[in-house]
Amino acid sequence: MPVFPNADPSSHIPSPLELLGWSEFFADQVKPSEVDLVPRRVASVHRARIDAIDVSGPIGLELPPNMNTADFAVGDWVLADPLTGMLVSRLDRKTVFQRRSEGGHGQQLVAANVDSLLIATSCNADFNLARLERYLVMANQAGSNPVIVLTKADTADDAGIFVEQAKALQRDLPVVALNARSADPVSMLRRWCGVGQTVAVVGSSGVGKSTLVNTMTGAASQSGQKTGTIREHDAQGRHTTTARSLHAIPGGGWIIDTPGIRTLYVSDVTDGIDTLFAEIAELAPRCRFRDCTHTHEPGCAVQAAVASGAVAADRLERWRSLLAENRDRTPVVSGPRGNKIASKKKY
Ligand SMILES: Nc1nc2c(ncn2[C@@H]2O[C@H](COP(=O)(O)OP(=O)(O)OP(=O)(O)O)[C@@H](O)[C@H]2O)c(=O)[nH]1
Ligand SMILES: [Zn+2]
């Protein structure tokens, strides 16, 4: 019998459901009256149809007439009737990404139950600190661990310059530079893609999201086609992703690809901004005024930190503009006495 030097005899062998990302968080939500239902995970959402996976593989989900596919996100866990295949209920989400739809008023669901968000950008003209900050705010707000993935490192003279700049964006932020067309992603991203873990890839069009997903899933497995990624020609005649879907990573977790996002607005993400600019958020309580804007007030701890060089002036500038945008775009609802309160985060 082979001996594995690091094998832990007490180590937990994941159940087939755990391999799909199931955990106690979801199991605890199943009511006694629901024990005859089966958990399924949403693999792709279409206008009139939802495809799911369960322990036996890909499976369709029937939606009752009072439910709308737009209310479901890739990565969601639902309970279904095993006999009719009818979706009965959705379990609460551990994490959820949503973004304000362009021109629209509602929030558009991007993905749910994502453990780590792979924020892809390339080591070239696409590299933009302000855009990365928006994605970081989105990940922080959703409760997922952000990881910056710098693609096309093979085309850069010195990818290290990009790595250093990205690392400075947020405390303890993991940053990896790789060639998405080589085997790099498989080993370099493995620690976020363990058994039962789910990652999602976001970023602008053309940065290499699909290439990354194909490399991680082993394109030869054709799992991309099976779970329903759609590639269409865009205005420039390039192939581009138009639908999100969940793909299996051989020997590991799950990866969700998303279409390129043109404009990412920040809205209702105050906590996410505080995490991104932790050095500023932590100083604020030491300002003389509780509602200090850190611009002109006497006794401002943040301005003092900028003067001493402990906080970078451009960070304060970017913090201010993100916060202003967030304030402008966050819907305000009337409170009990007509006072305005920001809308509550809703999963
Ligand atoms: N040299 C190099 N080329 C890459 C790398 N990653 C992606 N590419 C190329 O960049 C182009 C765009 O890659 P895609 O994977 O289609 O980009 P995408 O982000 O999925 O784009 P959308 O589907 O439009 O959102 C393709 O020609 C890829 O072969 C990389 O790390 N190095
Ligand atoms: Zn201040």
UniProtKB/TrEMBL annotation:
<keyword id="KW-0694">RNA-binding</keyword>
<keyword id="KW-0342">GTP-binding</keyword>
<feature type="binding site">
    <location>
        <position position="294"/>
    </location>
    <ligand>
        <name>Zn(2+)</name>
    </ligand>
</feature>
<feature type="domain" description="CP-type G">
    <location>
        <begin position="106"/>
        <end position="264"/>
    </location>
</feature>
<dbReference type="GO" id="GO:0003924">
    <property type="term" value="F:GTPase activity"/>
</dbReference>
<feature type="binding site">
    <location>
        <begin position="151"/>
        <end position="154"/>
    </location>
    <ligand>
        <name>GTP</name>
    </ligand>
</feature>
<comment type="subunit">
    <text>Monomer. Associates with 30S ribosomal subunit, binds 16S rRNA.</text>
</comment>
<keyword id="KW-0378">Hydrolase</keyword>
<feature type="binding site">
    <location>
        <position position="287"/>
    </location>
    <ligand>
        <name>Zn(2+)</name>
    </ligand>
</feature>
<dbReference type="GO" id="GO:0046872">
    <property type="term" value="F:metal ion binding"/>
</dbReference>
<dbReference type="GO" id="GO:0042274">
    <property type="term" value="P:ribosomal small subunit biogenesis"/>
</dbReference>
<feature type="binding site">
    <location>
        <position position="300"/>
    </location>
    <ligand>
        <name>Zn(2+)</name>
    </ligand>
</feature>
<dbReference type="GO" id="GO:0005737">
    <property type="term" value="C:cytoplasm"/>
</dbReference>
<feature type="domain" description="EngC GTPase">
    <location>
        <begin position="112"/>
        <end position="262"/>
    </location>
</feature>
<keyword id="KW-0690">Ribosome biogenesis</keyword>
<dbReference type="Pfam" id="PF03193">
    <property type="entry name" value="RsgA_GTPase"/>
</dbReference>
<dbReference type="GO" id="GO:0005525">
    <property type="term" value="F:GTP binding"/>
</dbReference>
<feature type="binding site">
    <location>
        <position position="292"/>
    </location>
    <ligand>
        <name>Zn(2+)</name>
    </ligand>
</feature>
<comment type="similarity">
    <text>Belongs to the TRAFAC class YlqF/YawG GTPase family. RsgA subfamily.</text>
</comment>
<keyword id="KW-0699">rRNA-binding</keyword>
<protein>
    <recommendedName>
        <fullName>Small ribosomal subunit biogenesis GTPase RsgA</fullName>
        <ecNumber>3.6.1.-</ecNumber>
    </recommendedName>
</protein>
<dbReference type="InterPro" id="IPR004881">
    <property type="entry name" value="Ribosome_biogen_GTPase_RsgA"/>
</dbReference>
<keyword id="KW-0547">Nucleotide-binding</keyword>
<keyword id="KW-0862">Zinc</keyword>
<comment type="function">
    <text>One of several proteins that assist in the late maturation steps of the functional core of the 30S ribosomal subunit. Helps release RbfA from mature subunits. May play a role in the assembly of ribosomal proteins into the subunit. Circularly permuted GTPase that catalyzes slow GTP hydrolysis, GTPase activity is stimulated by the 30S ribosomal subunit.</text>
</comment>
<keyword id="KW-0479">Metal-binding</keyword>
<dbReference type="InterPro" id="IPR027417">
    <property type="entry name" value="P-loop_NTPase"/>
</dbReference>
<dbReference type="GO" id="GO:0019843">
    <property type="term" value="F:rRNA binding"/>
</dbReference>
<dbReference type="InterPro" id="IPR030378">
    <property type="entry name" value="G_CP_dom"/>
</dbReference>
<feature type="binding site">
    <location>
        <begin position="203"/>
        <end position="211"/>
    </location>
    <ligand>
        <name>GTP</name>
    </ligand>
</feature>
<dbReference type="InterPro" id="IPR010914">
    <property type="entry name" value="RsgA_GTPase_dom"/>
</dbReference>
<keyword id="KW-0963">Cytoplasm</keyword>
